[in-house]
């Protein structure tokens, strides 16, 4: 069961739940659109990498790049170039494309090695009783990296006519940093026959939506992205389906109430659902069946262990949170808090702060307490 609940991007559609629409839309873009950069946005753990795994439009050359080095914009672009070149090196046997890929790999290795060694070296000057260390740094040659990336993409298009470039893990960066990176790459990615799909943080989707709503005015993201796709959180029923599909060999281990508690904890995030399900299994190895009561006790134990010491709630915060667990509508929540003697403006201020801190979630105009917080404050 622990192996079945292990959180990893899917490669088989047998375990996929409610993502066909996004996959079909992105495959259609890859097949029909002449060019463009597209964003796949969503919460961490929502399944963006899984979606990228299923992008197979049946035309052109599909290239998948997973970023790992992220100290700065220069390092991210260098990592992108290096990973792209390594993918080419794996599949090309000869020709100018392979030669350029190898040149790119050598360039990145040499640049990183020299930058690190120079940055770590230095001289020590001693004068009387005082000493001073100086460090010389060498900047990464970002302009040559752009040139090599441009050359590789042009050669790929020349050979395969159509390139589907999938870039994963850019969603782990801050919105501002992602915008800088995308802006610096927009001209390089603007090529006939090149479709680029990037996994991006949820904040980019919000920013893009605002740009689209502006009247007679172009936003910055509209100049970079042709469109964005947002992975909506799964419903409670869909989260339960995710767990049931994983545990298809053990259909009776979790009863319906236990599945409900797992879904409530997860807030629609498959990664959180799989993690808490594993914790429930690990904490109840002697049980033959997990009921709703057992699941609640285990989730309370886990949330207390991980979150209670780092979360100190005031009486007023608890009052607001407990009211939100009973009512979803913001106006009704404020009215109920006013009946408890909390001023209207204070109620709105606390709701907004709790939302900013991730303790409450707003979806489709309704407020709810985050699943993790719910099990901490519930009696």
UniProtKB/TrEMBL annotation:
<dbReference type="InterPro" id="IPR027417">
    <property type="entry name" value="P-loop_NTPase"/>
</dbReference>
<feature type="domain" description="KAP NTPase">
    <location>
        <begin position="32"/>
        <end position="247"/>
    </location>
</feature>
<dbReference type="InterPro" id="IPR036390">
    <property type="entry name" value="WH_DNA-bd_sf"/>
</dbReference>
<protein>
    <submittedName>
        <fullName>ATPase</fullName>
    </submittedName>
</protein>
<dbReference type="Pfam" id="PF07693">
    <property type="entry name" value="KAP_NTPase"/>
</dbReference>
<dbReference type="InterPro" id="IPR011646">
    <property type="entry name" value="KAP_P-loop"/>
</dbReference>
């Amino acid at each position: 069961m622990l192996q079945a609940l292990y959180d990893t991007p899917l490669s088989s559609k047998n375990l996929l739940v409610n993502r066909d629409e996004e996959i079909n839309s992105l495959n259609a873009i890859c097949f029909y659109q002449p060019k463009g950069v597209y964003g796949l946005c969503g919460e961490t753990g929502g399944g963006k990498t899984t979606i990228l795994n299923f992008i197979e439009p049946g035309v052109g050359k599909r290239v998948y790049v997973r970023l790992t080095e992220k100290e700065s914009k220069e390092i991210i672009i260098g990592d992108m170039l290096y990973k792209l070149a390594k993918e080419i090196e794996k599949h090309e046997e000869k020709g100018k494309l392979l030669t350029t890929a190898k040149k790119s790999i050598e360039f990145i290795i040499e640049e990183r090695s020299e930058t690190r060694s120079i940055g770590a070296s230095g001289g020590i000057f001693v004068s009387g009783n005082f000493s001073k260390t100086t460090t010389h740094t060498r900047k990464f040659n970002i302009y040559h990296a752009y040139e090599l990336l441009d050359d590789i993409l042009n050669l790929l298009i020349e050979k395969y006519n159509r390139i589907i470039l999938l870039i994963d893990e850019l969603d782990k960066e801050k919105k501002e940093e992602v915008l800088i990176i995308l802006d610096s790459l927009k001209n390089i990615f603007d090529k006939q026959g090149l479709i680029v799909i990037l996994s991006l943080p949820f904040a980019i989707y919000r920013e893009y939506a605002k740009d689209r709503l502006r009247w007679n005015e172009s936003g910055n993201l509209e100049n970079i992205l042709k469109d964005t796709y947002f992975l909506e959180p799964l419903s409670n029923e869909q989260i339960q389906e995710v767990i049931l599909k994983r545990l298809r060999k053990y259909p009776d281990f979790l009863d319906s109430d236990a599945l409900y508690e797992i879904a409530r904890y997860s807030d629609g995030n498959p990664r959180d659902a799989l993690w808490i399900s594993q914790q429930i299994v690990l904490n109840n190895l002697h049980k033959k069946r997990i009921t709703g009561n057992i699941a609640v006790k285990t989730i309370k134990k886990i949330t207390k262990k991980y979150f209670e010491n780092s979360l100190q709630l005031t009486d007023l915060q608890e009052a607001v949170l407990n009211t939100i667990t009973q009512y979803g509508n913001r106006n009704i929540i404020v009215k109920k808090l006013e009946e408890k003697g909390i001023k209207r403006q204070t109620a709105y201020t606390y709701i907004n702060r709790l939302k900013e801190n991730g303790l409450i979630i707003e979806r489709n105009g309704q407020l709810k307490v985050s699943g993790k917080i719910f099990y901490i404050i519930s009696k």
